[in-house]
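Deliverable D5.2: sample structural annotation.
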Amino acid sequence: PKWKEAMNEEMRALQKNVRWELVPLPHGKKTVGCRWVFTLKHKADGSIDRYKARLIAKGYTQTYRVDYTETFAPVAKLNTVLVLLSLAANHDWPLLQFDVKNAFLHGDLKEEIYMDPPPGIPVTSKEGMVCKLRKSLYGLKQSPRAWFGRFAASMRKSGYVQSNLDHTLFLKRCKGKLTALIIYVDDMIVTGDDQAEIQNFQKYLASEFEMKSLGDLKYFIGIEVARSKHDIFLSQRKYVLDLLAETGMLDCKPIDTP
């Protein structure tokens, strides 16, 4: 029952944003499969917080130049992140972190994609009907690119300039002040000396996407961040411990040389 509720909740969210329309499969077209992925979300004390079900398209069933073409999406460069952190430390700028909920679902599709109806959930009583996707879905090969394209377009619309050296970096100068943003998939850092612009930016993005403010920067691309007035301390302790736990090496004995 819990997993069924989670599936129904996911379907309500997808249908609310009109992910697809039900149509007969056109002659000569093929469908992309889909499946459910189930995850348990835990609280800090280890107890179960909620049951999460996500509908995933079977991207491996897609055909190049039929239902996808370009798939590349840029990711933040570590050097760019370090430069932003250094600027924030030197100028005592705030370092704020935001997360976009269900980022890949915001992407716009250019290709014509037909998907099998979700298993276990009746979406139609008619035979031979399939889902024609209107928006991107997790699992599609082009989902990361579609999401980043949509995000970059929104940033440019708001007056930000995209860096030519790192396409995940966006800058806005106004009356001698600077606001900078860098994004890694759906996780972003915002800094700068224009407090009014940062507040306006938050409101703008919240109107474009479902945003979550994570407060001061604490963890980004595997790096823990702690700061004082003019210093920033970076550590990858959590990342290393998670890696050791994943590989069953938590009890290993460290040595000085390989």
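Annotation notes: The chain has one domain: 2-238. Residues 35 and 56 are 5 Å apart (CA to CA).
The annotation will be released with the project's public dataset once the embargo ends.
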